[in-house]
Amino acid sequence: MNKDRVKLAIAPIGWTNDDMPDLGKENTFQQCISEMALAGFTGSEVGSKYPRDPNILKPMLELRGIQICNAWFSTFFADDLRAKTIDEFTHHMNFLHAMGAKVIGCSEQSKSIQGTTKAVFEEKPYFTDSEWQRVADGYNELAKIAATKGMQVCLHHHMGTGIQTTEEIDRYMSMVNDDVYLLFDTGHAYYSEGSQEAMLAILEKYLPRINHVHLKDVRDDIVAEVKAKKLSFLDGVKKGTFTVPGDGVIDFRPVFKLLDEKEYQGWMVVEAEQDPAIANPFEYAVKARRYIKETAGI
Questions:
Q1: Which of 42, 119, 159, 272 could form a disulfide linkage to 244, CB 3.0–4.6 angstroms apart?
Q2: 47 in helix, strand or coil?
Q3: InterPro entries in the record, alphabetically (predicted)?
Q4: pLDDT band at residue 296, thresholds of 50, 70 and 90?
Q5: Cα separations (Å) of 241 from 55, 218, 231?
Q6: Are 47 and 13 in contact, with CB atoms under 8 Å apart?
Q7: Which residues contact residue 277 at a Cβ distance below 8 angstroms, ignoring those fewer than 6 apart?
Q8: Of 153, 52, 150, 154, nearest to 95 (Cα)?
Q9: The dihedral of CA 88, 91, 96, 102: what is its sign?
């Protein structure tokens, strides 16, 4: 891949899980960003332990050669919380802008079960036509607000939410304006659709409108267990549904090839939430960095 177009980041969720703070509670913020840098990454997303004052956070990251590239933001447009969502988004955007980020990765969390004990496949939410319209209108508005700062909004398709499957991604992308983008996540696409081919089809179809990429691998045996036992998303995470690229069933070579051929420009972020007590974060960060160097040439 062209290293002038693509930068590599890693998410802090491998060190401390924001959805389950007990996972990695022993790992400090400074340990996390130091190990990111030591493993060879130059970017990070934002975790719960990160200071939210740019005057404090920036120097600590610059010391280690790390940039902030994005931070999760939850939207609730389908739940008709438009004003509250837009107000909170504006504060979030201003923080990311101060940190030098160019994209804002959002997830529509209305009716989401990703943080509950509900079975992730059997009990996922679905939106009504009017809820879909509220989501599309809301994201179109967020894109306009972000443009005032020279930033772009992207939606993170996610297990346990109303925008998870290929069909739901298709509907969303057909309803929003062209200045609304997609955050493509290899792990969630594979997990939802069950095959490398389906995951690659989403990537290929929307590449011109993908402005941020999450790289995570999947363990098929854990997915099978989640389905068989009707487990929740978080149960799967604790058991090891996800892992870093090169450690699961996904072949990332065609992913990197597609991104390179279509001249993708932006960040690729290793984001593989696991139990840090089982999967040492630094060890897995090094493993991911080595695999990407071997398969993507960067």
A1: 272
A2: coil
A3: IolE (IPR023952), IolE/MocC (IPR030823), IolE/XylAMocC-like (IPR050312), Xyl_isomerase-like_sf (IPR036237), Xyl_isomerase-like_TIM-brl (IPR013022)
A4: very high
A5: 37, 6, 11
A6: yes
A7: 23, 24
A8: 52
A9: positive
What is the signed CA dihedral for 36, 291, 208, 146, rounded to 10 degrees?
-10
Enter the tokens of residue 58.
Answer: 């920036």
| 133's tokens | 């319209």
pLDDT tens-digit readout, 175-212: 999 999 999 999 999 999 999 999 999 999 999 999 99
3-state secondary structure string, 253-284? Answer: HHHHHHHHHCCCCEEEEECCCCCCCCCCHHHH
Distances (CA, A) of 17 to 43, 47, 99, 161: 18, 8, 22, 19
Hey, what are 55's tokens? 């005057």
Q: How far apart are CA 102 and CA 151, in angstroms?
A: 5
Looking at residue 48, its amino acid is S
Residue 17's pLDDT band, with cuts at 50, 70 and 90, is confident
Q: What is the mean pLDDT of residues 14-35?
A: 91
